[in-house]
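Marked as duplicate of an earlier ticket. Keeping the data here for the record.
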Amino acid sequence: MDIASRFPTGVQLDAVVSKNRPRTEYPPQAAAVLSVQDAEQAMREIQNWPGYEAAELRQLNLLSKHSDCGEVLYKDESQRFGLGSFKALGGAYAVLCLVASEYQRLHREAIPLAAIRNGDYRQFTASMTVTTATDGNHGRSVAWGAQNAGCRCRIYIHREVSDGRKRAMEAFGAEVIRVDGDYDDSVRICARESAEQGWLVVSDTSYEGYMSVPRNVMAGYTVIASEVLEQIRQPLTHIFIQAGVGGLAAAVCARLWMSQGADRPRMIIVESKHAACWLESFNTDKPSQVPVETETVMAGLSCGEVSLLAWEVLSACGDDVVTLADDQVATAMRLFADAQMSDQPIEAGECAVPGALALMGICADAELKDSFGINADSRILLIGCEGATDAEVYQQLLASVP
C-alpha cells in the first residue's frame, strides 16, 4: 500500500503561522546563545566519545516522490550512542561541562573534559549530584552522562512518562522520582528541591537566571547539524523540525545558519496542538507559556513553555509554526517501519515523525505548498530525533494502525 492510499485526503494540519523572517547573516543575537566556537568545541569533544558514529542521513525517496519535491533527507538519530535519540548528545555533554565548571569554581583550575571522562577526578565527581526533569530521553542522557562522569543522579518525571522510560534511566544508576503533575510541574519541583539540597540541575530548558547549562545542552545538539553539513551534496532549502521547549530546533537552525548565512534554509517548527507554546509565542511575538491540558502521544513534545535561549534564536530564524493532532502519528510511524517513506525500513519513534506529517499536510494543499516554496528544486531536511525509546509503547502504536 503506497503513501497516497494511506493518506487519501492528506494529513490535516491543525494550525499554520508564517512569519517569513528576513534573510541575514548569522546575527549577534543568535551568536550570544550559540557561537561557531561553541559548535566546534562540542563536535571535537563528542567525536572522541567511545562509540561515536555520525548518525545516518537517509534519503526518503518515496516521500519526496509523493510530495513532488526534489529531495527529502532524514537525519536518523535512532542509534545515537545506543540511547535511541538525539538527546544523548545534549544532556551528557552538559554534565561534563558542568562538572568541569564546578571544579574550576572550587579549585581555581581548569580541567579538560576528557580527564573527567577518563575517571581522573572520580574522588571529586563522586561527591556531586546532578538532577533534571524529563519526559524520558533527556533524563536518559543525563543519567548516562552522570554515570560516565562518576556523579550521583536524581531525575524527576511526570505522571505520564512510561515505566519503560523510567526503567531506562534507572539502568544508568539514576534515582527516578515520579511527580503527580505535568512536565512543567516536574521542572519546578526539580528546581526547588535541587536548590534546597545543593544539587546541580542539568535542564534542557532555560529560564531567567538559568542559561549556562541549557546553552551547553544546545551546543551538544549542534553536532547533528555539523554532521549534516558534512553529509549533504547541496545546501538545504527547508528544515522541518519538531519542538518541545525548542532547544533542538534552535541548535540545528543556528548551526546551519552559521554555515549558509543569508541563504539559510526556511525553518518550519512543528509541534503538538496540545502543547502549542511556539504557536502562541509566534502569535504574540514573545516567549509564551500555555497550559498542557491533554498529553500528546508525542511525549517529548509535551512542553508548555518555550526555552528563553531557544526563543533568542528562533524568533530571528523561525519562519513558520505548524501544529498537529495526534491522530496520524502512529500511521506515520508504520509507514517508516514498513519501508514506505524510503526503500528501507526505519525505526521512527512518535517524536520522530512530526516533520514528515507536516510536509505531507502542506504538500496536500497546492496553495499552501506554493506559499512554502516547496517544489521540484527543494532539498528538505527532517530530523528523525528518536527511535523506539520505549519498545512497548512503540509496538503498541504500530499495532494500533489498521
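See parent ticket for discussion. The CA atoms of residues 222 and 251 lie 5 Å apart.
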